[in-house]
Amino acid sequence: MVDTKVRIVNALGNDVERNSKEQGEIIVKGSGVMNQQQQMSSDGWVHTGDIGTMDESGHINMIKMNKDITKHDGDPVSSFEVESVLYKHPAVREIVVLATPDQELGDIIEAFIVLNEGYQPTKQELLDFSAQQLAPSDRPKQITFLDELPKTPSGKILRVQLKQNYK
What we know:
By secondary structure, the chain is mostly beta strands.
């Protein structure tokens, strides 16, 4: 599209590295971009809610839609924000954050994590890592390590299956 700019930003609004690895929200700016259902920042950037990566050449790979907002203690929690923080830990290869039921606490934030080869962090190590960067209401309360995340043939993570299989 002519006169359209695209960026990918992390939870703090900073551009992600152009390395095809660091994920962020895709934002766009230009004539004819505005959609009433999307959020526009004061400087004219439209937040699409889509998550992607950018390579060295500026090509974008869309990963998923960021419509995953959960509630914890009545407060909205962005799964993307929690995932972004934990992705910074060198042991984390893949992650999905969901609200899962807990008999004592009601819904809790749970992180399902696939580790990079050669890493064996404890659950507490990852919980402490997230505590350094997230508000108490946004921190995961449970970590579940998996060999792989359940996915469709096209690579979309099956979040519902995770919730059903790991109650």
